[in-house]
Amino acid sequence: MQSEQYKGYMLWGHAILQQKEILHSERYAASGTITKVNRVIEASGVLGEFDTGEEAERAGIQWARAWVDSSD
């Protein structure tokens, strides 16, 4: 899980391991969460699937930044 502070919010990027079939390589679903003063402000659904956990976490952070920018 990656996190960063942005415009007074804490942004969280999540990677959820997705392994649909044993013979296929692992994929990671991305999601994002926005908190402020330890309260959840908004959370995404699944944003897509990625080859690495790091890519998925970055996608979650990017979604959270865009949400904050559109809500200010």
Automatic annotation (TrEMBL):
This protein's name: Transposase
Source organism: Paraburkholderia ribeironis
